[in-house]
Amino acid sequence: MTFYLVPIVEGETEVECFERLLHLVWERILNAADRLQVVEPFRGKRGSLIDPTHPSFLQKIEEASRTLARLLRRDPSGRGLVLLLLDAERDCVRQLVATLLPALRPIRPDLPIACVLAKQMFENWIVAGASTLAGVNGLPNPLPRRHDFEGHNGAAWLDEQMRSQRPPRKYRKTIDAIVFVRAMDLRECRENSPSFNKLCRVLEGQLPPPDEPPTEEVTPQPQEEQTDA
After folding, report:
1. Which residue among 51, 90, 101, 205 is least enclosed by CB atoms within 10 Å?
2. Contact status, residue 208 vs residue 147, Cβ threshold 8 Å
3. Which fold has domain 1-119+193-208?
4. CB 193 within 8 Å of CB 148
5. pLDDT digits (tens, 9 = 90+) for 11-66
């Protein structure tokens, strides 16, 4: 069975990074038996994707939903999800989700639609799972102690660490992020980052319930006749 995931993201970097990350979560954390097919993400500007009154907001959700509906018509046994996946930046994650979800659901009530926001930015997820990144792609070995995984600027932290080893070298999102995504510790990231844990839980919620083991029929055994001594 195939699970079709139709992401809506901002920017160019997120397209490749999120696709790789979604596959890794599916395989390494969820151990999902279904095949995951991540459809080419729909891209939009963040300002329009966090504003339900903006014409592009409705347009992107409808385009992604039509794509998912078409895939499911072709594959009746398949399942799928439209996923709005954005950086929260300076916005409060809880408040922004509370604004977006009520606007998402009525657009296509017949299809699953979810919203996940990375606290601050996508790089904060990399930092939250960075224990396996020492010496990777220009990072120092050992890495300095990390803390406050979601309350700081993850891209700035990566840039600082790379410059500490080679001052002219800086963090280049379009090049370095995908390298770090491939090597980061996903389970550690889930423990350190509530917003990444939310992504895992959203995907986990799309998995079919595990098959219950068949109940064995127990044949009553004839009891020995009790005799008086």
Report:
1. 90
2. no
3. Rossmann fold (3.40.50)
4. no
5. 766 778 889 999 999 999 999 999 999 999 999 999 999 999 999 999 999 999 99
